[in-house]
Each structure stands twice: as structure tokens, then as C-alpha cells.
Write a structure and sequence with these properties.
The complex is a heterodimer of chains A (about 180) and B (about 400). Chain A has about 180 residues and is mainly α. Chain A contains 9 helices and 1 strand, in the order ααααβααααα. Classes of the chains: A mainly alpha (about 180), B alpha+beta (about 400).
Chain lengths: ~180, ~400
């Protein structure tokens, strides 16, 4: 109900509604994008784009959907678009590797990562992207497998397998984390 | 690392914070986009949304409420649905028959000139044992709470924003409404009788697999109505209901959309939810219906009847006979004749169902109104559902045809 009210106020051009939506969801979207891209700078750009497009979407937004799902899906699409563009650049410049996390952040950074998030982000970067996406959507967005399968346009069993393999690999990569 | 739960905990503990200055700087950029967008958007009408919603036809809300009650209390018949779908439609009815209480949200969206829609949000509570309550939000704020309490035969309207309220007595018919299965069943059948069903197949709503049907047909006031019902394939309970219809908005027919969702079937509701608990600083105001009745009575009392000329006295039996013919036509469902007496009334199926089979109890002596040419005829009739009506009919002779015509309904 709260999100529905926020959308409605936002559709009427209320500035405070946009701020409340921004304040409510920016952290979750940033974390999602960081874990998916492995690069906080890229993640910041993607999330900023998500909110920018959202600010332009007053006429397209309906009241029947979930605001949270809308923003998560927008972020996911942003990450995928970035990957496609990145791959194109890679073929032109083969000496660059994908997903090298930025080790040194600029002083004007938006997201300040905890040490745990940095470790998690580095570990996730070692997984194939599809597995990363399944685990992130499941763990961070609490999305059911059926919905993830729909987003990845694949079967639920494939999503299950990606989840299982991804978790196994993360276990070994993060093994020291458990004891902490 | 033992399990996925451990990974989940790692995710939960992996946090981030944001640099406040950068956070604000980014927001300013985003907001400037919103401001630009707003600058190029159509100018909103400066009208008060509340006044608009007050003009919205209450019959529409009533129609929606009846559907919800019908769904909630097991009156939703899917007799036209085949067996090919995953939803066992007959079980939808069985399941909903067991429902004694439900909570749901309703969003009413009214298309308005200028492209800006008026949106009203209602949180509705319905309990077979206690009644109904609807919390209405306008412009993001709780504006009004409506209670209908059949056990006490009383209704309340509490205007939170104005700190006022009024209460009104429920008539027997109003108190019975929502409890009389036959009436609800009839209403629903009327709504659905227009165009049959179309199966919509499977979809997903908020991660729930659903199947839907679409119904096109006239609503209770005879206007075109479109309805979609989506039912959870596992529980066989409705998940979402969408209704769209045209409604009179500022003298123009405009699309109204009703979205019902977030159903909590068999919600745990206690009597306290239905206790108005009006704060002490709220002012009791007059029931608008009572005010209107008082004004109407006052007008009638002021308008003492004319002394009839011999010619007018000779017309009295004809006037009385016209009223009798009208009532008889209703009894016999002769709608062509009824329409001659009521040319301004839209004879929707709902209207016909109410009028069909009525019984004439009494037709009094016609008198002439103090002003004008209208005849006033006191009458009492009884409807087939048991309700009765005692009123004064206004009749005038058409200047061209001489046919008696009812003014303002009856």
C-alpha cells in the first residue's frame, strides 16, 4: 500500500515522492548491481540511470505492479545492457578482462562498501554470470525460482541447477567467511 | 560453509553505506529530470479531487462492492467455464463459500481530462458476522472511513480530514444486502449475462501462478462493463479482479477502472475492526440523505395543492388509471408500455429485475401541484424481494401526444 501511494504521488509530479522512493530503494539496488557487476563504479552508473529513467516514466507507470520488482528488473536490465556493451568493447580491445573490481575508489564515490560486501563481490565475480544472477536475485531480492526462470527465459530446473552450482562454488570461495 | 542459509547470511551482512554529499548530488540530477518532465507534461486541472470523487456515481462502487461480496461469499458462478483450464472453477465457488471474512485493497482510477487520472485507494474489510469497513485514501492521506454494520442496522461515515462524521440507519433492505444470497446471485448474473466468458489462460501475478477469465457485458446500470478475474491455480481463490466501465464524470462519460487485489481470504478479523471509535473532537454532522429528505418534505408541504377545476376533476380518474397501468405493466414485465410512461429512464436489466412482479398496494387521489401542471399521486408498492416503497409520483401530460409521463422516476 505504501509503494502504491508513492507511485501515485510520483505520477502527480510530487518531488517528495521521488525522494522517498530514491531513499527507500537506492541501497538495495546499488548492492544488487555491485554484486552482479563486481564493479562499484559501474553499479553506481547503472543505478543512477535506473532512477533517471524512472523519473521520466510517470506516464508509463501503472499502479497494479510492484514498485520494488519494477526497480529490480530495471537494474537487472541495466546490468545486462552494460555487459553487452562491455563485450562489444572487449572484442575490440582484447587485453581487458571482464569484472575486475575497482580496488581503488574515487573520493567522490556514492557507495561505500563494507569489507564483507567487497569480499562477496569479488567471490561473485568468479561465478559465471547466469549463476551470479540467480544467486543475487534469490538471496538479495528474495525472488522465487519461477520468476527468475521467467527473467532468464529458461526452465526452473536450469535455474535450480545454476543456483546449486553457484552456491557450491561460493561456499568454497567464502569458506573463511562462515567462521567469522 | 554448510548451506544456502549461510550464504544468505553472508549476503545480509554484506552492507553498504552512501556518501551523503554524493547521494544528494545524484538525487538533484534525477530530480531535475523529473522537473523537466513535469514542465512539458499537460497542465493538471486545479480541481479538488475530493469534490470529483463525490460526484462519482455511487452505483459503481455499489456494483464493485457487490461483486466482491459475491466473490467473497461464494456466489461466483463459473458455469460457462470449460474443463480445459488448470483452475477447477467449480472449486472456486466451493472454496469461496467457506470464506467468512476477507481483506482486500481496491484502487479506483478515474480517467480525467488532461491525461491525469484521479486515484482513490481503499482498504476494505468484510466479515460475515460484523459487516464492512472501507478506509479511503485520497492524495495519499486517509480521508474517510465507511462502516456498514448490519447487526446494529447502522452505517457511519467518518471524515478523518475534516474531523466530522455522521451516522445513518440502515433500512431492512440495506442491512440485508450482502446477506441475501439470492439478491447477490441475481446481480452478478445480470452483470455477466451480456457476453459470456473468455478464458485468458495462465499468467503470473506477484509470483503467483493464476488463470483468468474475462467478462464483457452490461453492468447494473446498463452500461458496458469489462471484468477480468484471476484465480490462483493452487488455492482456487481469486487473486486479482479488474473492472473497467464508463462513468459520468463532470457530465462526460469517462473510463473508470477498479483494481481489487491483495486479498486475504479468511482474514482474522475481530469485532474491534468494525467499531467506529470516533474521537471526542469529531463533530457530528447531519446525514446528507436526511437533509435532502427534509428539504423535499418542506417543498411538498409548502406546495399546497391547487383547487381543482371541474375539468381537472374529470381528469383525475385518467391520471389514476395511468399510474395503475404503469404498475401493471411492471408486474407483467411489459417493458414497452413501461417505457412509454418513463421515456427518460434507462431500462437496464437491473431496473427491470427490481420492477418485475411488483405489487400495487395503494394508489391515492391525484392532486395538482401548487405550481405548474404536474399531477401528484400518492402510492405504495411492494417489490418481489419483499421491500416496499411509499412515495408520491409526479405525472404530467405530454403536450403533443397527451400521454401521461412520469417526471423524475418513482
Amino acid at each position: 500500500m505504501e509503494d502504491k501511494l508513492l507511485i501515485w504521488q510520483f505520477k502527480r509530479g510530487r518531488r517528495d515522492a521521488l525522494r522517498r522512493i530514491y531513499n527507500k530503494y537506492h541501497r538495495q539496488l546499488l548492492k544488487l548491481a555491485i554484486v552482479l557487476t563486481g564493479d562499484p563504479d559501474t553499479a553506481e552508473d547503472i543505478v543512477q540511470d535506473v532512477f533517471t529513467h524512472f523519473a521520466q516514466s510517470t506516464n508509463r507507470l501503472g499502479l497494479s505492479g510492484s514498485l520494488r520488482s519494477y526497480l529490480i528488473t530495471s537494474t537487472l536490465n541495466g546490468v545486462r545492457n552494460h555487459r553487452r556493451a562491455h563485450r562489444r568493447r572487449q572484442t575490440e580491445n582484447l587485453d581487458k578482462a571482464e569484472n575486475i573490481p575497482a580496488t581503488t575508489r574515487r573520493p567522490d564515490q556514492w557507495a561505500v562498501l563494507s569489507e564483507r560486501l567487497e569480499r562477496l563481490s569479488r567471490a561473485m565475480a568468479c561465478l559465471p554470470y547466469e549463476q551470479r544472477e540467480v544467486i543475487t536475485l534469490r538471496m538479495e531480492a528474495n525472488m522465487p525460482f519461477r520468476q527468475i526462470a521467467g527473467m532468464q527465459k529458461t526452465s526452473i530446473s536450469t535455474v535450480n541447477a545454476r543456483y546449486r552450482y553457484g552456491i557450491e562454488k561460493l561456499r568454497s570461495l567464502l569458506n573463511s567467511e562462515v567462521t567469522k | 560453509m554448510k548451506s544456502a542459509e549461510d550464504i544468505k547470511r553472508v549476503f545480509e551482512k554484506a552492507t553498504l553505506s552512501t556518501n551523503p554529499e554524493k547521494h544528494e548530488a545524484i538525487f538533484e540530477k534525477i530530480q531535475s529530470v523529473q522537473d523537466q518532465k513535469r514542465a512539458t507534461a499537460p497542465v493538471l486541472s486545479g480541481s479538488n479531487p475530493r469534490s470529483k470523487i463525490m460526484k462519482s456515481p455511487i452505483t459503481k462502487f455499489a456494483a464493485v462492492a457487490i461483486i466482491i461480496l459475491a466473490v467473497g461469499f461464494g456466489l461466483f458462478e463459473f458455469s460457462g467455464i470449460g474443463n480445459t483450464s488448470g483452475v477447477v472453477w467449480s472449486q472456486v465457488m466451493e472454496k469461496t463459500e467457506q470464506i467468512s471474512a476477507l481483506v482486500y485493497d481496491m484502487t479506483v482510477e478515474i480517467d480525467q481530462p488532461g491525461g491525469e487520472n484521479l486515484v482513490v485507494l481503499l482498504r476494505n474489510y468484510v466479515a460475515r458476522d460484523y459487516g464492512t469497513r472501507a478506509d479511503t485514501h485520497i492524495d495519499g492521506k486517509l480521508s474517510k472511513i465507511m462502516y456498514i454494520l448490519p447487526n446494529q442496522k447502522v452505517g457511519y461515515r467518518v471524515y478523518v480530514d475534516r474531523k466530522t462524521y455522521y451516522q445513518y440507519e440502515l433500512s431492512d433492505a440495506e442491512a440485508a444486502r450482502g446477506r441475501d444470497p439470492e439478491e447477490l446471485r441475481t446481480c452478478l448474473k445480470n452483470i455477466m449475462s451480456g457476453g459470456g466468458y473468455t478464458e485468458l489462460g495462465r499468467a503470473e501475478i506477484n509470483d503467483v501462478a493464476v488463470e483468468g477469465i474475462e467478462v464483457n457485458g452490461p453492468d447494473m446500470s446498463g452500461e458496458d462493463c469489462f471484468m477480468r478475474v484471476w484465480v490462483d491455480v493452487e488455492t482456487n481463490l481469486p487473486v486479482q479482479i479488474i473492472m473497467e466501465m464508463l462513468g459520468n464524470e463532470g457530465g462526460q462519460m469517462r473510463p473508470h477502472k477498479y483494481l481489487m487485489e491483495n486479498f486475504e481470504w479468511n482474514a482474522s478479523l475481530d469485532e474491534k475492526t468494525f467499531e467506529p471509535n470516533i474521537p471526542d473532537d469529531y463533530t457530528l454532522i447531519e446525514d446528507p440523505r436526511a437533509g435532502r429528505d427534509r428539504q423535499e418534505n418542506s417543498k411538498t408541504q409548502q406546495a399546497s395543492p391547487q383547487t381543482l377545476t371541474e375539468q381537472k376533476q374529470a381528469e383525475q380518474p385518467k391520471v389514476k388509471q395511468a399510474v395503475r397501468r404503469l404498475f401493471n405493466a411492471c408486474t407483467e414485465q411489459d417493458w414497452d408500455t413501461v417505457s412509454k410512461y418513463l421515456p427518460d429512464m434507462k431500462m437496464s436489466q437491473r431496473t427491470k429485475d427490481i420492477l418485475a412482479g411488483l405489487e400495487t398496494i395503494y394508489i391515492g387521489e391525484p392532486t395538482k401541484a401548487a405550481n405548474g401542471n404536474k399531477w401528484l399521486i400518492p402510492y405504495e408498492i411492494k417489490f418481489k424481494n419483499g421491500g416496499s416503497q411509499k412515495n408520491t409520483m409526479r405525472l404530467r401530460a405530454d403536450e403533443n401526444t397527451g400521454q401521461f409521463i412520469v417526471r423524475g422516476g418513482f
